[in-house]
Amino acid sequence: MKLQFKHQKFQADAAKAVVDVFAGQPYLTPTYMMDRGNRVYQPMLDSDEDFTGWANARIIPGLSDSQILEHIQKIQRDNQIEPSQSLEGKYNLTIEMETGVGKTYTYIKTMYELNKAYGWTKFIVVVPSIAIREGVYKTFQVTQDHFAEEYGKKIRFFIYNSSQLTEIDRFASDSSINVMIINSQAFNARGKDARRIYMKLDEFRSRRPIDIIAKTNPVLIIDEPQSVEGKQTKERLKEFHPLLTLRYSATPRDYYNLIYRLDAMDAYNKKLVKKISVKGVAEMGTTATDSFVYLEGLNLSKSAPTATIQFDFKGKSGIRPVSRIVTEGYNLFDNSGELPEYKDGFVVKRIDGRDDSIEFLNGVKLYVGDIVGKTDENQLRRIQIRETIISHIHREQELFNKGIKVLSLFFIDEVDHYREYDENGQPHNGVFADMFEQEYKDIIGHLQRKFGDDEYMQYLDAIPVEKTHAGYFSIDKKGHMINGKVKKKEQTSDDIDAYDLIMKNKELLLDRNPKRSPVRFIFSHSALREGWDNPNVFQICTLKSSSSEVRKRQEVGRGMRLCVNQDGERMDVSVLGNDVQNVNVLTVIASESYESFVKGLQSEIAEDIVDRPRAVTKDLFLNKVIMDDQGNEMTIDSDMANAIIYDLISNRYIDKKGSLTDKYYEDKANGELKLADDVRGFEQPVVKIIDSIYDPRAMQPENARSNNVELHVDEEKLNSKEFKALWSKINAKSVYVVDFDTEELVKNSVIVLNAKLHVPKIYFKIESGSMEKIKSKEQLKDGVAFVKESSEPCKMKHEIVANKNVTYDLIGRIVEATGLTRKAIIQILTGINEATFNQFKYNPEEFILKASQLINDQKATAIIEHITYSVLSDHYGTDIFTEPTIKGKLGTNTMKVKKHLYDHVVYDSTNERDFATELDVSKDVAVYVKLPDGFYISTPVGHYNPDWAIAFYEGHVKHIYFVVETKGSLDTLHFNHITPTEQAKIDCARKHFQAISDDSVVYDVVDSYTSLMEKVMK
Q1: Is 129 helix (H, G, I), strand (E, B) or coil?
Q2: Which residue from 6, 63, 439, 694 has the least number of CB within 10 angstroms?
Q3: What residue spans of 821-908 are helical by DSSP H?
Q4: Strands (DSSP E) along 551-647, which ranges?
C-alpha cells in the first residue's frame, strides 16, 4: 500500500502565514566560497567550483523590522490571534498545530513555499527524541513523490550522523532544497561529553561541522520546542546562526510571535482528528458482597432489554470468569455452579436502558462498566483486554465494507507480560498474551452473525488467534524481545531498532489481506509510545500498573490521526462528509471510570490551551476587525461590544460568569441564534469569536457505553409500496456541467469592482488622553488607567503609499485566490476604472483580498446560473440504509418511532427531534427516513446530503414525494445558517431533483412540520 496525500486548506494556510511575514523579500540564491580546511583528502574537491556553497539570502535592508511586525500583526488579526506588540527576536515565529493533523507535512510544505517565494534552500529540523526523529524521517520519505508532483522538485534530506560528515559538505554545496534532521542530544553537551559537531575533526579537514552548517544561514524548524528548548539548548541553537526559527508544537510553552493556531479544540471541532470515546472500568466500593460481577453492556432492541455480565463460574477445572447475556429473573447462584457468594439475592430484578443499569434483588445496582466485589490486578487487565477486543470487533464490522483495516494498540510496562523465554531461549506467551487469546476465542465463538456479514466472517475465520496479535519491542542480540533502555527522568526509549521495526511495518499493518498482514492487535512497550502514529489505530488500551504516571493526552495522541482505506486514501470530510467522526472514532479503554478519565483529560487540554479566553466578556470583542460576505470590514468599538454582550445576556446565551449556556448551543444547532442589530450582516464572524471560548463541553469525549441503541431497518417498511415508490423517484445519480461565459463573468466582475471595491487608505491617527488616577495595580496591568479623550486623523501633505521596494505579483495572487486564468484577471483589471485600480498602491494586501472576494462572488453566481444536471443510469441501492451502523443514546439524541424507515431516529438538534415527532404522528405521512450520509448530491462546492425523504399518502396532499432540508427559524436564515456555500448546495439540489424526477419530487428548505405542510399543499 502507498499512502495518499491530499492538499488541505489549513495546512496551506499555515504555510502561507509563514511566507506572508516576509512579503517583499526578493527571490535570491546567493553563493559563497566554502571553507576548504587545511587538508584535502578527496581529489574531486580540488577546484574552486567544487567548493561553491549555497546559502539562504538574508532579509533585505528594505524590509524593515517594523514592516515585518506589521505583516505579523495583520496575519494574527486574520487568524483571530492577539497581535504581538514587538518582534521577539530575529525572527521567531510559532505555529500551533494539534497532534494528528499533519504537523510534519505542514512544515515540509512550508519549506517548499519559502523556496518558491524567496529561493531559500537550507533547512534544519530539530527534534527532541529519536522516536520523533524517525517519524519525521519517515514522513519525508512517504511524501516525497506527492510534493515532487506539486512543486516539480524533490528535497534532499538526511539524519545528522557525526560519523558521516560528507553529508554536511553536501548540505552546504548543493543548490537544491536540503534538510538536515537532528535530535537535540546530538549538539547539546559540553565538557567530556562534548559533541563532535563542535570539534575540529581530522576526517573533516580540521573543520568544525557547526561552522559549515552555520555559514548557510539555515531556517531552523523546531519540532515540539517545549521538549527541546531548555536554557542550555537555547544557547546552543544560536550557534547555527539561523536566518529565522519556526516552532511547531501542539502545546507551546512560549508563544514567540504566534502566527497560526490549530489547537486541540479547533482540530476536534473541525473534524480533522478522530472523535474520542472512552470505555471506563470502575470498581464500586460496596460491602454488600465479595462476589465478582462486571456489567459489560446492555442490549436494547424491540423486545425486552438484556444485559451482558461477567461473573465467576465453577467448572471442572476450577473457578473462572464467564460472560453471559441475561434477562430479568436470571439467578447467578444457579448459573455459577452454585457458588455460595451469589446465594444472597443475586437475581436480576431490573434492566433499565434509560440509565444503562442493572439491579439485583439484594439492592446491588451496577451501571455499565462497573465492577463489584473482589478483584485483583490481573482480573482488571483481563476486563480491559476483553473490552478492547469487543470494541475492535464492533468497529471492524462497521468499517469492513468501507475497506478499512482496524488496529488496536496495547501499551504495557513489562515485556515479560507479553512474551517470556524458557531456559533454552524458546518463546512462549506471557500472561497478557494468554488472556488475549482466551478472551478473543470466547468473543469470536459467541459472535452473533448479522445479515450480510458472510464476507466478514470469512475474514475472521482466515486469521488464527495466535497470528492476529504481535509484539513490537526492542530486540537483543539473540533476537529476544526486551524492555529497552529508558533513561532516568524520561518516559521514552531511544532504541532505534524498535522504532525502525514500527516504521517499516507501518504500511504493512494497514493491509487487510489476512495472508499478508494478519496482525490486528499490537502489544508495545509504553516507553515506545511516541513512535506510534499509525492512522488506523481505533482502540488504545494501556495495561499499566497503578503507579505509572502517563498524561492522558499522550495516551490518546497516538490514535488521533484520521484513518485510511485500502487504497491509502485518508477518510476525511472530503470523502465522508458529515460521517467523518462516525467512522473515525478512537476508543480508549481506561482502567478508571469514564467520569474520572474525562475529567483528567479535559484538565490537561485546558492546561495546554491556556491562551484561549475562558469567558465571554466585552474585551473578547473590543477592537476585533470583522468582515461580512462582501468583504466589508468593521471594527467593533466599545458601544458595539456592549450591545453584543447585552443581547447575549438577554437571550440567556451566557450566564453570570460569562460561560456559554445550553441554550446557546441549542439555538446554534437549530439555526436560531439571535444577535445584536448592531452587527447585522456580520453575524458569522461574531459567532466565530464567541466560539473561540474554551468550553470543555464543546469537545467532551463520548462515553463509549452511552450509545446504547443501534438502529435497525424495518424490512416491512423497506419493502412497502410507498417507500419503494419514493425510493425509485429519488435514487438516481446525476452529473453536472458548468458552462458559464467567461466574457460575461469578466463584465460582471468589472461592474461590481467599480461599484463595491473600497480599500481603506493608510493614515495616521492622533489620539490623546490622560490618567487622572491610578485605582489599582490591575488597572495598570490591563492598560486601562489612561482615558482616551480625543481622536482625529492626521492631515498629511502627501498620501501614504506602499513601499516600492516591496513587490507584489498582483495578477498571480488574484489568479491563485479565484482559480481564473491570468488572461481573465488581466481583462478584469484593465477593465476597471483608473480610480478603482489606483487603490492598489495605497493598500496592496487589502486590494488583493477584497478584489478576489468580489470576483469569487460573481463566479459563484455564474456557476449556479449556468449549471445543468443530467440523470445518469447509475442509482443508489438500498444498501446505503442496511450497511452503515447508526447508534444513539435513548432519550438524549435518539427516540423510538413508528413511521421511520428505521426503528429509531437519531436527531442532531431539538428542531430535528420536534420535526420527526410531528412526522411520526401525522396521518398524512406513509413513511419517512432521515437520509444517511452515504446519500449525497455532487455539486461544484462539495457533496451535499439532504436531511429527510418523505412519502405522503396519495390523495391526502398535492405533492406526494418530498425531500426536505430542515433549518432553524426561516427569518434568521439570512445570517445564521445559510452561508454562500450552503446556498449554492441548496440551489444545486433543486436542479438535481428537477433533472431526475420531472418535478414529481419536490425539494425545499423548511423550519418546521407546519411550514412543510404549507409547501406540500401548494
Answers
A1: coil
A2: 6
A3: 822-831, 834-837, 839-842, 844-866, 879-882
A4: 585-589, 625-627, 633-635
